[in-house]
Amino acid sequence: MSTIWDIWVGAYAQQDEVGLTRLQLDSETGVLTEQAAFTGIENPSFITGNRSGQHLYAVSEVEEADGQPGGRMFTFELRDHGTALHAVRALPTLGEAPCFIMMDTDEKWLAVSNYNGSSVVLYPVSPDGIPAKASTRFRHSGSGPHPERQEKPHPHAAVFSPDGSYLFVPDLGMDKILSYAYHLERQEWAGHSAVSLAPGAGPRHLIFHQAGTTAFVVNELHSTITRFTYEEPGTLHKQETVSTLPASFDGESTAAEIVLSPDGRFVYASNRGDDSLAIFNLDEVTGELVSAGYVSSRGRNPRHFTLTPDGQWLLAANQDSNTVVLFRVDMDSGLPIFTGTVLPISKPVCILIRNKF
């Protein structure tokens, strides 16, 4: 019996344009179909959901809302098996251009990064899945050598550690990953540590390996991936850095997303300019990243992509060609194979696989 994956796509859009699109993928046949499209939220550029599938959370990546500086974080209730969305709460992000949102594994916190607001905020989440107003905001200070992209801090993600006790924030403008710790006895978050990347690297997104002892960050401006060991709680130790670009590429390109295969054997990254997906093996002995090849994203500016939880399918959001492209993954080599399926979706920038039916 085939699995039906429920997929949500966030896009850059005006409030009266389609910003959220719901898709379904049949795992056996590879048939990808559009199920519903929704307006009413401006620039839902990053989305996440809770495990029950009852709620969808989205940032509205804007500079101001309702005449006030800063973006918004929306909570939607999914109704009628995902065919209807009901907005149950809209909260300020306390900073401009929120670009990332993540929920911890215990579903007690939502974290949002404000790219132009130089800050990260945390929202406590009640057992019914509804967040309260932000209880914590951390403001960053600093800059990097790139005159246009690193004139000030630009937090680009906010990633909880596997146990949920720490929050890691790659800051593209500062060339640092800052970490924050939750102190249970005081029931509050506080600054913990920081690790520096190469000057001008521009760390963007971060992922943890399932084993919990390794992390990877994709560096947007240098088009590289840096591996870290994570053996001391809350602290990353820098290891090797590898390029995400083919040696033959000569041009302008920036790295965007990083994804780990569900079996923990492969790391993927997207390149905007080369318009490719880079695939890496993890050395079984050293854990080091070893290049395994590159494939075209079959579109322009692959800002985001994701794998189905079984690792068999990869979906890429090509922002500038207005397409979501489906690949079948060769489970032995890890290489994505183009299926021929291309769905037209305007300015797609985030893909979430919410659950399965």
UniProtKB/TrEMBL annotation:
Residues 133-156 are annotated as: Disordered. It comes from the Bacteria. Pfam families: Lactonase. Belongs to the cycloisomerase 2 family. This is 6-phosphogluconolactonase.
